[in-house]
Write a structure and sequence with these properties.
Metallo-beta-lactamase, Chain A, 2 domains, five-stranded mixed sheet, alpha/beta, 45% helix, 295 residues
Length: 295
């Protein structure tokens, strides 16, 4: 949020799912603001945990424009392909429990593709957009120089508050379908080079230890790249995803133990949900490489 005079301007960065929109609207009300004051709805990328509620939120925030990566914009206007793919993965019942009856499209006139280096105003601030591959090809991050912070979506890892009790712990997201380890490492370096005082991963909240987070993410990404290489050339197709998952579990158990961090069963189950997604993304990459090598 920023303001000019008595007319505050608001922006949302990522929307979560349609199920989250009532909470977002309640937050506005509790803070004394109105949906009509929202100028921008910013979608870092089109994965449904970040963008699934964009259409519903836009229907309430009638003055807002929706800012998205050029590759993501068309899916916000017409989310039918996203919905079809998600229904195949989850099944209709689980999809609707997670994301609602259907994904809502956004009128084309309200969706603005943001090119590399594009800027918009928010009150007295300027928000700058830069494309960040690695997690997804249609991902961007948003720099707010006035606050010395950057909103990173999934490009600078995940930070779960419940897993921070024994020191900062962040991990990268290698979930399907566009993970690229080399580009992910470049993105870490690019965000670090901004020299901001903090960053905001969508999952979850402000992080002040930017350098420490970058160092952790580099180590974890380098391991993921090595594991992907091994999986591509050595793991049989039927066991591809399960063996990658096993490798991730062993790695993070050893990593946490070496740091003197020990998770209870509840914390480990939470972490393992992401390890399963990360394994699925690495397995998808391995299959793509195999298909390209054996057309």
């Amino acid at each position: 949020m920023d303001s000019v005079g008595q007319n505050p301007e608001l922006a949302w960065v990522d929307t979560a799912t349609a199920q989250s929109v009532p909470l977002l609207l309640k937050t506005l009300k509790d803070e004394g603001y109105y949906p009509e004051q929202v100028r921008w709805i910013i979608v870092t990328h089109a994965h449904l945990d970040h963008a699934g509620g964009a259409g519903v939120l836009a229907s309430y925030c009638k003055n807002a424009q929706v800012l998205a990566h050029p590759r993501a914009a068309r899916h916000l206007i017409d989310p039918s392909r996203l919905e079809m793919s998600a229904r195949k993965v989850y099944g209709d019942e689980s999809f609707e429990a997670l994301y609602g009856k259907r994904l809502e499209g956004i009128p084309p006139a309200r969706v603005v593709p943001m090119e590399e280096g594009s800027e918009v105003e928010l009150g007295r601030s300027r928000l700058q957009f830069f494309h960040t591959r690695g997690h997804a090809n249609h991902h961007f991050c948003v720099l707010d120089s006035s606050l010395s912070t950057v909103y990173t979506g999934d490009a600078f890892g995940l930070r779960y508050p419940s897993l921070q009790g024994q020191g900062l712990f962040v991990l990268p997201s290698t979930s399907p379908t566009d993970f690229d380890g080399v580009e992910a490492l470049k993105t870490i370096d690019r965000i670090l080079a901004l020299s901001v005082k903090s960053y905001y991963p969508t999952h979850f909240g402000q992080v002040g230890e930017v350098q420490e987070a970058a160092e952790q993410l580099r180590v974890h990404l380098e391991f993921s790249i090595r594991l992907l290489e091994e999986a591509t050339h050595s793991f049989s197709t039927p066991e591809l995803e399960s063996r990658i998952h096993q490798g991730l579990v062993r790695y993070y158990r050893d990593h946490l133990e070496a740091r003197g961090q020990f998770f209870d069963s509840h914390q480990w189950r939470q972490l393992d949900l992401d390890l399963q997604l990360n394994a699925a993304g690495l397995a998808h990459c391995a299959r793509k490489t195999r298909s390209a090598d054996n057309p």
